[in-house]
Q: What sequence folds into this?
C-alpha cells in the first residue's frame, strides 16, 4: 500500500477524502430533492434557473482563476509576498465587481432569460424559473471571492479546508430543503443554496487568514501580473464554460421531453461526476502545481514523469469505477433517491441515463488532467479550441439523436464529445512540450 501511495501527488489523499465527503453530501442533497419534489417541474425549474448564473460565473471568473492565477502567483509568493497579497486583492475585487454587474443584468432580464433556458416549459413554469433565477443570481458574487481564495490554497497546498468548502455548500442546500421547503416550496432550496455559498466562502477565508496570508482590499488593474491574468483568461473564457453550455443545450432539449427529464438528467450527471471528481479532478488538481513548477524550473522530464504517473492512475481508477457503477446503477439509485415522490419509473429512467453516462467517466477524467498539463505550460488556447469542438459534437449529437433515441442520446453525445477532446489533447501535447523545450 505504501508503495502505491508514494506515486500519488501530495495532497491527493486529503482532497480525495474531502471530495468523497462532498459527493456524499451531494448525493444526500439529491435524495432530499428527489423525495421532497420528485421528478417534477418545480425541480426542473430549480435546475434550469441555475444555468445562466453558473455559465456567467464560469465565463468571467472560474475560467481564469485556476488556469491563470496559479502559474502567476506561484513565483510571486517567493519573490514579493506583499505584491502577491495585493494581486490576490485585485483579483477578488475585479471578480466580485464583474459578478455584481452580471447579477444586476440577470435580475432585470430574468423573464426573457427563463424563456431561453427552458423554452419547452409552460408559461407558469417559466414564471417560476424567473423567480428562482433572480435569487440564484446572487450566489456567483459569493463564489467569485471563494474561488480566488481556493486558488491560493491550491498553490500553498492547503487542501483540507479547500476540499471541505463544497461539503458545507451542500449541507447548506440540505438545510434549506429540509427545514424551509415545507413552507416555501422550492424556494427553500434556493435559500439553502445561498446559505451554502456563504459557508463555502467562510471556510476558505478562515484557512487563508489562518495561514498568515494578509488579505488586502486592493485593485491594481494596470499591474503586469493582472494584465497577464486577463490575457490567459481570454481564451479560457470561451472554453471553461463549455460543460455548462453543453448542459444548457441539453436542458433545452430535455425541456421538450416529458416532465422530470431535466431533473433526471441532472441526477444521473451528479452520479457520474462522483468518480470523475474523486479520481480525475482530485489527481489532476494536485498534479497541476507539480507540472507548473517543473515548467518553471525547466525540468521537462519531471513534468513527463508526473503526468505519466497521474495518467495511468486516473485511467485505471476511472475504468474500474465506471464498471462498478454500471453494474449497480439501478439499486444504487433506488437506495439513494427512491421513495417519497421519486417513484420506480423515475428510478428506472435515471438508471438508464446513468448507464450511458458511465462511458464518459474515463474520458472526462483524463481530459481534466491533460488540460491542466497545457495550462502548466501557460497555454490555454489549445484546450479551449478542443473543448469548443467537443461542444459542437455534444450539441449536434443531442439535436440529431434525441428525436430517435430519447433522453439517452444526451449522455451518449456527452461521451462522444469527451472522447474526441481526449484524443486530440493526447495528439497535441507532445508537440507543445517540444516547443517549451526549444524555447529554453
A:
Amino acid at each position: 500500500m505504501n508503495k502505491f501511495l508514494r506515486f500519488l501527488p501530495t495532497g491527493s489523499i486529503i482532497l480525495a477524502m474531502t471530495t468523497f465527503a462532498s459527493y456524499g453530501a451531494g448525493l444526500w442533497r439529491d435524495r432530499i430533492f428527489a423525495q421532497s419534489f420528485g421528478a417534477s417541474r418545480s425541480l426542473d425549474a430549480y435546475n434550469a434557473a441555475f444555468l445562466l448564473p453558473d455559465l456567467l460565473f464560469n465565463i468571467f471568473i472560474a475560467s481564469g482563476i485556476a488556469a491563470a492565477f496559479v502559474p502567476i502567483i506561484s513565483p510571486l509568493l517567493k519573490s514579493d509576498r506583499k505584491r502577491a497579497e495585493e494581486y490576490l486583492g485585485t483579483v477578488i475585487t475585479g471578480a466580485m465587481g464583474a459578478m455584481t454587474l452580471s447579477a444586476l443584468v440577470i435580475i432585470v432580464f430574468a423573464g426573457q432569460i427563463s424563456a431561453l433556458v427552458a423554452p419547452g416549459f409552460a408559461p407558469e413554469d417559466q414564471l417560476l424559473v424567473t423567480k428562482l433565477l433572480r435569487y440564484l443570481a446572487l450566489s456567483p458574487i459569493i463564489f467569485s471571492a471563494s474561488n480566488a481564495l481556493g486558488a491560493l490554497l491550491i498553490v500553498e497546498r492547503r487542501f483540507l479546508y479547500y476540499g471541505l468548502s463544497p461539503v458545507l455548500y451542500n449541507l447548506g442546500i440540505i438545510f434549506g430543503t429540509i427545514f424551509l421547503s415545507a413552507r416555501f416550496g422550492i424556494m427553500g432550496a434556493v435559500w439553502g443554496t445561498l446559505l451554502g455559498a456563504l459557508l463555502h466562502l467562510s471556510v476558505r477565508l478562515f484557512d487563508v487568514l489562518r495561514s498568515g496570508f494578509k488579505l488586502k482590499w486592493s485593485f491594481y488593474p494596470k499591474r503586469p501580473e493582472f494584465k497577464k491574468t486577463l490575457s490567459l483568461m481570454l481564451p479560457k473564457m470561451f472554453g471553461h464554460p463549455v460543460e455548462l453550455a453543453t448542459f444548457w443545450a441539453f436542458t433545452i432539449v430535455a425541456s421538450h421531453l416529458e416532465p422530470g427529464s431535466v431533473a433526471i438528467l441532472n441526477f444521473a450527471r451528479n452520479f457520474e461526476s462522483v468518480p470523475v471528481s474523486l479520481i480525475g479532478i482530485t489527481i489532476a488538481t494536485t498534479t497541476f502545481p507539480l507540472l507548473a513548477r517543473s515548467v518553471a524550473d525547466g525540468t521537462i522530464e519531471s513534468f513527463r514523469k508526473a503526468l505519466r504517473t497521474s495518467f495511468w492512475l486516473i485511467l485505471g481508477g476511472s475504468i474500474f469505477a465506471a464498471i462498478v457503477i454500471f453494474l449497480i446503477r439501478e439499486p444504487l439509485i433506488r437506495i439513494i433517491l427512491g421513495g417519497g415522490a421519486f417513484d420506480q419509473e423515475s428510478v428506472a429512467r435515471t438508471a438508464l441515463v446513468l448507464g450511458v453516462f458511465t462511458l464518459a467517466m474515463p474520458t472526462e477524467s483524463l481530459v481534466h488532467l491533460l488540460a491542466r498539463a497545457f495550462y502548466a505550460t501557460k497555454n490555454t488556447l489549445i484546450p479551449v479550441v478542443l473543448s469548443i469542438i467537443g461542444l459542437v459534437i455534444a450539441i449536434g449529437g443531442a439535436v440529431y439523436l434525441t428525436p430517435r433515441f430519447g433522453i439517452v442520446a444526451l449522455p451518449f453525445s456527452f461521451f462522444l464529445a469527451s472522447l474526441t477532446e481526449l484524443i486530440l489533447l493526447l495528439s497535441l501535447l507532445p508537440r507543445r512540450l517540444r516547443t517549451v523545450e526549444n524555447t529554453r
The chain has 17 helices and no strands. Residues 2-438 form one domain.
